[in-house]
């Protein structure tokens, strides 16, 4: 029974792709948060252990897809190669991909080992689960429901979509083309 419910939820989620982020029902064209004015995801460390910021890469004229993931996430394992190809296809053009592991700084070596064994072409950082989760609430006005979770920012740095669970790159391309 649980498996049937999960499959139904997964199918509905895939069909919806990104849910747009809205300020309220009266002004559906406005994004919930002007992310260009905020520091996004503080306290990130790049996978080499240095402090890093995602904020400077968002809102510089390209769409930015942020993948929140964990080393223990099976769906992340499936999606990472798909979005590595997506990143390679689009990075010189209209979209860039950035990954944030929520495994925490204390698990940096596990994240480094995970990435070393996989062909992941997009940049990744490591954040603390609670900090990343708090940032997600501030940025998207939604709680972090699990991994993977995708946040899509438009070229002006405004969040335009959130998706939890497996996502096909074609859905991202369709969303971008429609917006």
3D architecture notes:
With 179 residues, the protein is an alpha/beta fold. It has a single domain, classed as Glutaredoxin. It has 5 helices and 7 strands. Strands 2-1-5-4-3-6-7 form a 7-stranded mixed beta sheet, with helices on one face. The longest helix has 17 residues, at 74-90.
> What is the total number of structural domains?
1
% residues in beta strands:
15-25%
How helix-rich are the residues, as a percent range?
25-40%
Oligomeric category = single chain
CATH fold group: Glutaredoxin
Q: Report, as a whole number of angstroms, the end-to-end distance.
A: 38 Å
Radius of gyration: 16 Å
Number of strands: 7
Itemize the secondary structure elements and their pairings.
Blueprint: H1 2-16, E1 44-46, E2 51-52, E3 63-69, H2 74-90, E4 95-101, H3 108-116, E5 124-126, H4 129-140, E6 149-153, E7 159-164, H5 169-178
Task: Output the keywords.
single chain, 179 residues, alpha/beta, Glutaredoxin, seven-stranded mixed sheet, 5 helices, 7 strands, 18% strand, disordered N terminus
Quick summary:
By secondary structure, the protein is α/β, with parallel strands linked by helices.
